[in-house]
């Protein structure tokens, strides 16, 4: 039987996560998108801790406009929080999603705000 869309994404996610991991000095920028919202967090995999997070549900994020514009705002918010925490370099984890559309917009917003990956 063919795999569902979610099963395919989870397979891709497992394959990617086998190759990348985050640390305190170089955390992993993990992205999750639902049909309505988008979430990003910086994760230290060695200690199993989330260092910084941002989402389109937060009050500080400008959630007006299209979903792609909101994704750019979330990218800028996560980058600003990372800078405040003293983090400049990250490893990008698209979490099995295609690097296109909202995921790409979030990454571009984070890069614009000064995050390097």
From TrEMBL:
It comes from the Bacteria. The keyword RNA-binding applies. Coiled coil: none annotated. InterPro entries: Ribosomal_L18, Ribosomal_uL18_bac-type, Ribosomal_uL18_bac/plant/anim. Part of the 50S ribosomal subunit; part of the 5S rRNA/L5/L18/L25 subcomplex. Contacts the 5S and 23S rRNAs. HAMAP family: Ribosomal_uL18_B. This is Large ribosomal subunit protein uL18. It comes from Epilithonimonas hispanica. The lineage of its organism: Bacteria, Pseudomonadati, Bacteroidota, Flavobacteriia, Flavobacteriales.
């Amino acid at each position: 039987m063919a795999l569902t869309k979610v099963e395919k994404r989870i397979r891709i996610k497992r394959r990617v996560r086998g190759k990348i991991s985050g640390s305190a000095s170089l955390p992993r920028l993990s992205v999750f998108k639902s049909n309505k919202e988008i979430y990003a967090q910086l994760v230290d995999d060695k200690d199993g801790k989330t260092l910084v997070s941002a989402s389109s549900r937060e009050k500080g994020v400008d959630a007006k406009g299209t979903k792609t514009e909101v994704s750019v705002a979330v990218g800028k918010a996560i980058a600003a929080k990372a800078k405040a925490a003293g983090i400049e370099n990250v490893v990008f984890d698209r979490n099995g999603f295609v690097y296109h559309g909202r995921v790409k917009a979030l990454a571009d917003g984070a890069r614009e705000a000064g995050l390097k990956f």
